[in-house]
Known about the structure:
The protein is α/β, with parallel strands linked by helices. It folds into two domains: 8-249, 3-Layer(aba) Sandwich (Rossmann fold), CATH 3.40.50.300; 269-332, 3-Layer(aba) Sandwich (S-adenosyl-L-methionine-dependent methyltransferases). The protein has twelve helices and 17 strands. The strands form four sheets. It has a six-stranded mixed β-sheet, with helices on both faces. It has a five-stranded mixed β-sheet with strand order 14-13-15-16-17, with helices on one face. Strands 2-1-4-5 form a four-stranded antiparallel β-sheet, with helices on one face. A hairpin with a 2-residue loop joins strand 4 and strand 5. Helix 3 runs parallel beside helix 6 (151-165). The site of adenosine-5'-triphosphate (ATP) has 10 residues, from helix 1. Adenosine-5'-triphosphate is lined by residues 17, 27, 45, 47-53.
Amino acid sequence: MPTSIPLLTAEELTVGYFSRPKTPRPVAGPLRLRLWPGELVCLLGPNGAGKSTLLRTLAGLQPPLSGRLDLGGAALTSLSAPARARQLSVVLTDRVDSGNLTGRELVQLGRHPHTGWLGGLTTHDDAQVQAALAATGTEALAHRPVGELSDGERQKILLARALAQDTPLILLDEPTAHLDLPNRVALMRLLHRLARQTGKAILLSTHELDLALQAADRVWLLPADGALRTGTPEDLVLSGAFAAAFAREGLAFDPATGTFALHAPTGPLVQLVGDGAAAFWTRRALEREGFVPTAAPAALRVTATPDYWISQAAGSPGQRHDTIAALLRALHQPATS
Ligand SMILES: Nc1ncnc2c1ncn2[C@@H]1O[C@H](COP(=O)(O)OP(=O)(O)OP(=O)(O)O)[C@@H](O)[C@H]1O
């Protein structure tokens, strides 16, 4: 669990760019940030909010426009590049030119802050590289040229390099971007476990809202106005901050289910009776078809059981259906048929 001494702190931090002639163009801030050892933090926000800009600034790859940024108790700018590389590893979305390196050679580069560029790898370094390959499931990629890997494979091998670097802080910009669903879930599980077991602080940006809400110890929520909100995922959902950050015309976040509604409710009310998986998927089908499921009595009633469905219009006998498709067909038919 997080300790009481933050690994990274920021006060009055403003991140952004300079446009000519030397005019600061703030993207987000002023920010007050704390990252504690042992926590997985997901940085969420709409496109263009400034997530990558913030991550690059925290990694020391671009200067803040103003404010103070400390890592391990020292100002980030005061750290030499090797000292910084022993404190933090970073994987960005930029394409990496890895020449003819194999997967293993790329991961071995992660050990250089510990060995120096001319230093050979010790048995301990080799073990760290092997452990990073194993943790990311990339052993089979170790002998393949990185230039020939798929986007998802390259993303995993870059994560392995960051793990091999073995730093107290890991910064990842959209690490799930090119991964399929099983790999996205596996990655979030791995990062969560890693934070818990090794005490590393891991900050990642992602558009995987659902996964982030499940996996993150804390969320840094960066809305388009650049005013960061932080908290547990649950507190941010229940306070409405999460819905507000992603507010779009016709796109509503439902705090009861933790999902964004794809369909705007327009059709007639349907009283939905039942519980469990059958009721959940019946609700989804009804919403997709434009009905508005409710627990309250309504002119149309649908009962969902694990084996069959019953539809009933007020004053009519109930009809039994063996599938949701048959139920929907009946609901769309005029009451007289
Ligand atoms: N090199 C740059 N120079 C000037 N402005 C930039 C630069 N890079 C990004 N920006 C601007 O900064 C803002 C934030 O961009 P950033 O890439 O940090 O957002 P993001 O939240 O990571 O977005 P996305 O979710 O789309 O990846 C955007 O308006 C973008 O156009």
